Protein: Serine/threonine-protein phosphatase 1 regulatory subunit 10
Organism: Schistosoma japonicum
Amino acid sequence: MNLAVTEPTRLLEAYSEHLTDSGGIMQQSVSALVELMSSANRKLVPKCISLCIIASSSPETQFQLCKDGAWEILLKWLQEALKEDNYAFLLELLKVYLLLPVRLEQLTQNVCPKLINSLTKRCDHEEVKSVAVDIVKKWKDVISSDSRHLVSNHVKRKKIETEAKPCNTDVHSHDTLKDEKKRRTTVKIPPNNMRTAGMEDTSTQAQPKSRSDILAKRSKIDSDNCLTSEFPIESFHQKITVTPTEPRKGF
């Protein structure tokens, strides 16, 4: 008897640094409680202490416990209690199940919901049966709510994907047109003048003449040639006649 009282006390003292003021497990000490549950085997004392700690923990910590392995350990304890017809422990275990903030993900992981649902139909213990009924009712609501949420998210995702397809096509077309314009504007145009060595005086370089200037100059040259041909220059061999003049007075 003394051992039965002393052992839980020593166990609680050993885990006191992991507990909150309300007796629940701290968020950062979840792994320590999971380790205690794993090492319980068939001993009722660590099992009952673990159930008390879980029941006193916050919903967020309870959810984390289920994700980190406590959900599977509780199933093992449930199967053992059903096999041994240990209704006292089974009742405490079901009360913890009723508190857990489980979601559809946990309820589809193992046969725990199926086992508890069976208690609502063929259990002679009225209190156990009553708690099992409450659990099944709560979990059915969770399944219904989460299922609708999943369907709604699936529909929204499909709608977004459908609306995004033509948008992506327009963006692709816009990008293609933009690239084409960019290619047009970035094509290098060769300079009109040939590249020089950079030492020439640009002011003395000959300026290109238009076609009209060239034709006008050519017409002027042709006109000058015509005038020259009408008045030919006499040859140096032509005889020149000199008429003598009177001598000046005074000589």
Residues 50 and 165 are 53 Å apart (CA to CA). The mean pLDDT is 77.
